[in-house]
Amino acid sequence: METRFTILLIEIGIAVTVQAFVLIGILIAVRKSTTRMTNIAEEMQKRAIPTLENVQKLVEFARPRVETAVENLTQASDTVRAQVHKLDMTVNDFVDRAKIQVVRADDLVTRTLDRVETTTEVVNHTVITPVRSIAGIVSAVGTGLGVFFRRSRTSGNGSHSEEMFI
User: Fold this and answer.
1) pLDDT of residue 163
2) What domain range is 34 assigned to?
């Protein structure tokens, strides 16, 4: 049993020694990685810090200009909005006035056409009808005179019966 115990102790000693070497290897690898990471971090810091400083300066330089531009755009937007509102009111007023003028023009044309029609009827009744009557009378008188003068000519010639025959 002692041999077994001795073998067990030797096995445990070998295992502990292997573990110690493994841990020493891990420690060495971690130190190398830490050193490499530290170098990378330092290099990144060397490169990044000037860039960040330049960005900071650029932001500080551009900030007032950007704020001024935003204020100007805000004012321009307000001005445009006010002008569009005025234009909208003006256009609406113009359209309303144009509608009123169209209604007035329509009324004017309608009244004018009614007056022309009434005037035409009055002229027709007061002028043309009497002129037709006078024309009829003149035509009747002319026909009567024509017949009268034809009779006078035919009674002297004796050919009146010939004319009656036709």
Assistant:
1) 53
2) 2-96
